[in-house]
Amino acid sequence: MRKLKCSKLAQEIFDAIEEEGGSVYLVGGVVRDYMMKRTNKDYDIEVFHMSYAHLVEVLSRFGQVMTFGSSFAIIHLDQLPGYEFALPRVEYKTGTKHQDFSIEIDPELPLEKAASRRDFTINALMYEYKTGVIYDFFDGIGDLQRKQLRIVNTEKFKEDPLRILRAASFIARYDLTCTQETFDECQAMVKEGMLEDISRERVFEEYNKILMAPHPSAGFIFLRDIHALPSYLEALVHTNQRLDYHPEGNVFNHTMLVLDLAALTKKDVSDPLSFMWSALLHDIGKPAVTTPDGHALYHDIVGAKVFDQEVDLIQGKKMRNYVRTMIAYHMRLMNMARHHIRPITYKRLLKEIEGKVPVRDLMMLSRCDKLGRGAITYDTIMEFDKKMEDIMAKCGTEAEEPLVTGQDLIDARFEDRSQYRTLLEKAYDMQLAGYSKEKILRGLKNGK
């Protein structure tokens, strides 16, 4: 088998550690991905038979050392980004939260015991740098070949509830199925309320990994099956749609189809992660408005309100603006295309989404939404694409700069500044209708 590749500097450092009496093992994800012939930018290194102080001293010869305390024995080197050095350790749960652990460092820990703290067998592989030998104490290689996710140690696994979300992430990223034992353990942990002990930031990080995976629906279907979805996604499971429009069934099924289509197209949008969040959340307004016969009028508008009130995982202002705008406007382009797209209507839309979402991103979500139904034909999408390309060629993809500004209103002696916003909106509408600046100001003066 080919040798696991490391940077030249990493090899020099590993050789120095070995010369000083340490033993270098590459562990975890980098070995898993090596076995799967995938690239991995993150290297986890465990160093045996060397004290923490000695390891710090060796590493400091090659750059600035950044330590995370001797209790964790984790070290980074500024000249070697992506590499994390640690000593073998045993972890003991001390509380309910994800980070509530005590750590016992043991440079002489047996290899199998060091590997046993890992979550899944595919992550418990160890690659010995000096010999190239792979140690597989729990048949992780067999599980990779069987494409299954299996827990290493049930008692250890349940000490960290974040592993539930990591399971969903691995299922989505590597196209795995989980063993019954893994499924049952994750479901039991959810039932015990253990997900409540994970910080919002860590949940967000794991959701991001699922969303950026090749097959994100697999991760969320797993979370659905173990009853681990947040309420606004769980509600989609119980919201049925009109089967003549949505033969795929409930809103969750539709969302999963849209999500996988979005994964195929995310490379073509301005902000792939925000785009994937938009695909996941675009229909969260439907549970609130869907009638018994499956109609869901104004679910886009209501969805934006649900996002404001219930979705707290996304904290960044820029991402929130993007996702909220996509939810609120995801029906607009298709509705325009269903009829004759009037330039003024399209230009108004450009202004409304300006600085929040590029119109081509909105177009891509509209396509995914339309294709995420069993009743859509290729011709329907081709017609939508043609209409959109025609209007974009004619009217562009950016909002027109306003002819009339607040300074113009001041100069024209509009005294009631509380009305400026309304006046500027009216001025912009007149501009889109073809009026010159002079006529717009005159019309505003005359109260038109």
From TrEMBL:
Which keywords, in A-to-Z order, does the entry hold?
Answer: ATP-binding, Magnesium, Metal-binding, Nucleotide-binding, Nucleotidyltransferase, RNA repair, RNA-binding, Transferase, tRNA processing
Cited CDD domains:
HDc, NT_ClassII-CCAase
Q: One GO MF term, please?
A: RNA binding
Q: Which cofactor does it need?
A: Mg(2+)
Name the source's superkingdom.
Bacteria
The UniProt entry, under Pfam families, shows: HD, PolyA_pol, PolyA_pol_RNAbd
**Where would I find the Poly A polymerase head domain in this sequence?**
24-150
Q: Name one GO biological process term.
A: RNA repair
Pinpoint the HD domain residues: 251-348
tRNA nucleotidyltransferase/poly(A) polymerase RNA and SrmB- binding domain residues are 179-229
Family indicated by similarity = Belongs to the tRNA nucleotidyltransferase/poly(A) polymerase family.
Protein's name according to its UniProt entry: tRNA nucleotidyltransferase (CCA-adding enzyme)
State the organism named in the record: Sharpea azabuensis
The organism that produces this protein has a lineage beginning with: Bacteria, Bacillati, Bacillota, Erysipelotrichia, Erysipelotrichales
